[in-house]
Amino acid sequence: MSNYTITPLKNGLENVQGFYCDAVNAGLRPDKEQGDVAFIRSEVPCDISAVFTRNTFQAAPIKHFQKYPQGFQTDFVLINAKNANAMTGPKGIEDIDTIMSTLQTKL
Question: Taking the complete model, does pTM exceed 0.70, yes or no?
Answer without folding.
Answer: no
